[in-house]
Amino acid sequence: MLDLKGKNVLVTGGSAGLGAAICVRLAQAGCNIAVNYASRKEPADQLALKLQKEHGVKSVVLQGDVSKSGACSELVEGTVRELGGIDIVCSNAGWTKAAPWDDLDALSEEDWDRTFAMNVKAHLFLFKAAKPHFLKNADGGSMVISASVAGIKTTGSALAYSVTKTASLALQRGLALHQGPKCRVNSISPGLIMTEWAEKQFDRQKMDWVTANTPTGAIATLEDCADAVHLLCANKSISGQTIVLDGGFTLR
């Protein structure tokens, strides 16, 4: 039984898309939720209110740019202060700038630095801040990273994105191996999923091509991904693993 009732969770990038779906799924499981946002306060506020009304859990909103180490520490401490503790960190916030893979000048040094800060360093900073609290918990703690099939296969919106998603999986494995036994670290690796960002970036022709080349004939939904996060948060026998949600696309 995937029981998480009463657990306190921080979800970064939680105001929309996959982050919002994770918030909803874990609230359904009885978790109290700290919804992090960087700049979109209104949807974060609306989501927190919805979680409280529909699921009877405590939900708070925390602003912070996870590309900054100090902000990561403040988000963890804010979660502890507002919810009374922290059991789970869903490190979901990320960043990319779509660019042609064959154009090495398409991304600036600043673009590479921001991609690495958001997609790799943020996970480390959040874990470091949460670890002392995890060690105090009777059941320890869990981190779930939102990775990508771009970290497994040479694909994705840009070379920098794929490189950093690969690095995030290496980080996950290293933390899981050396930071136990009271700390578990896992990830989900979705393929193309229909977030607000994806709908703006990819036309119908691209979507049809991905679907046609997916063995199941369908891409994963946000809810599929959120269900996988729930499993990783609750199943204490899983650590250092990623769940690929791509309908078998990366098998080709």
Automatic annotation (TrEMBL):
The keyword S-adenosyl-L-methionine does not apply. PROSITE patterns: ADH_SHORT. The keyword Transport does not apply. Signal peptide: none annotated. Keywords: NADP, Oxidoreductase. It comes from the Eukaryota. Gene3D superfamilies: NAD(P)-binding Rossmann-like Domain. One of its GO terms (molecular function) is oxidoreductase activity. Belongs to the short-chain dehydrogenases/reductases (SDR) family. This is Uncharacterized protein. It comes from Protomyces lactucae-debilis.
